[in-house]
Amino acid sequence: MKGGREPQAGRADNMPLVTSHEVLRKAKRGKYAVGAFNANNMECVKAVIEACEELKAPVILQISQGAIKYAGLEMATAMVKAAAAEAKIPVVLHLDHGTSFEQNVQCLQVGFTSLMFDGSKLPYEENVETTKKVCEIAHAVGIGVEAELGIIPKIEDGYSKKEIEAMFTDPDQAAEFAKATGCDSLAVAAGAVHGMKSRGAGLDFDRITEIAKKTKLPLVQHGSSGVPLKTLQKAITCGICKINVATRVSMALLAGTKRAWDQDPEAKDFRPIFKEGMSEVRKVVSEYVHKLGCAGKG
Ligand SMILES: [Zn+2]
Q1: Residues surrounding ion ligand 1 at CB below 5 Å
Q2: How far is the CA of 149 from the centre of ligand 1 (A)?
Q3: pLDDT on residue 117
Q4: If DSSP codes are grouped into helix, strand and coil, which group holds residue 144?
Q5: Is 147 in contact with 179 (CB distance < 8 Å)?
Q6: How many whole angstroms from 194 Cα to the centroid of ligand 1?
Q7: Which of 37, 111, 123, 245 has its CA 20 to 30 A from that of 253?
Q8: If you ran DSSP here, which 8-state letter would residue 114 be given?
Q9: Is 11 left (phi over 0), alpha (psi -120 to 50) or beta?
Q10: Ligand 1 geometric centre to CA of 274 (Å)
C-alpha cells in the first residue's frame, strides 16, 4: 500500500511501495502495460527508477532467482526499498518466478508488495495447490500473486518451435486455474522464450485474447526481450498488462560499460565507466515505457 512520501531514515515499514494489484488494475482499465525490470544491482535499480521518474511511469522492480543468488534476498530487497523511498513514482517490489511457498512467505515478511509462485513445471494439481496457498497468505495482507500456467522456456533449453508450442497455456485450463487458485495475474506461454538476445519471437494473439477473456485477469508477458516491440504493443491490446524485460537491460548495461571502458582503457575509477552503462539502461527502459503506453500513468 502507498505510504507517506517523506523518506524516513531507518523506517523500513514506511516505504512508499505500492502493490501490483493497484498498478495492474489501472493498467488493465487503461489498456497499457507496466514494465517489470530486474533489480540485480544498484546500477540497474537506479537507472530504471530514473528513467521511469522522468516519464512519470509506474514501475515494477522484480527480484529474480538469479538476483537472489547474485545479490542475496536482503540486499536486493534493501536496494529497491531505498530507491523507492526517494522515488516520486509508484514502485512495486515483486518476486519473479518464486520457487516455493516458503520463499513467498520470506518475501512477504521482508516487505514485498507483489509475489509470484511459478509452479508451471509441476503437475497441474500441485501447481494449483501451492499457488492457492500462496494466494491465501498474500491476500490476508492485501498483496497480489502472479501465477504461471504453461511453460515459458529458456533459450538455453534449446526447444524446437513445435516443442515450445506444446507448452503454450491452454485458455480453458487457465480459466479453471484462475478460479481454483484465486491468483491475481497470470504469466502466459504464447510464443516468448526467456533470455533471447534477438527479437525473433512471435506471439499467439488469439490465445492471449482467449485467456484474458476467460480468466478476466491482467496477463503477464515473460521473455519480452526476444519479442519485437510492435508485437508487444499488439499483445497489450489482447490483455497483457505487465511486460518483463531482463536480457535487454543486462545487455545495455554491458554495452554502455564496455564502450566507456574502451574509450578510457587506463581508467582506475569504475564509477564514470558504470555511469555510461546506466545511461544505456535508461535509454532502453525509456523506450519500453513509451511503447508500453505507461508514460504519464505514475
Ligand atoms: Zn520470466
Answers
A1: 222
A2: 12
A3: 98
A4: strand
A5: no
A6: 6
A7: 111
A8: E
A9: beta
A10: 26
The DSSP annotation for 135-190 comes to HHHHHHTT-EEEEEES---BGGG---HHHHHHTSPPHHHHHHHHHHH--SEEEE-S
Per-residue pLDDT tens over the stretch 187-234: 999 999 999 999 989 999 999 999 999 999 999 999 999 999 999 999
Residue (of 137, 133, 136, 131) closest to 116 by Cα position: 131
Burial class of residue 4, CB neighbours in 10 A (0-12, 13-18, 19+)? exposed
Task: Give the least confident one: 11-15, 117-121, 189-193.
Answer: 11-15
Distance of CA 75 to the CA centre of its chain: 18
**Alpha-carbon span 129 to 180, nearest angstrom:** 9
Q: Which domains does the chain have, with CATH numbers?
A: 12-292 (3.20.20.70)
φ, ψ for residue 243, nearest 5 deg: -120, 115
What cell numbers appear for 70 in the block?
Answer: 547474485
If you measure from the C-alpha of residue 60 to the centroid of ligand 1, how many angstroms do you get, rounded to a whole number? 13
pTM for the model stands at 0.93
Measured in residues, the chain has a length of: 298
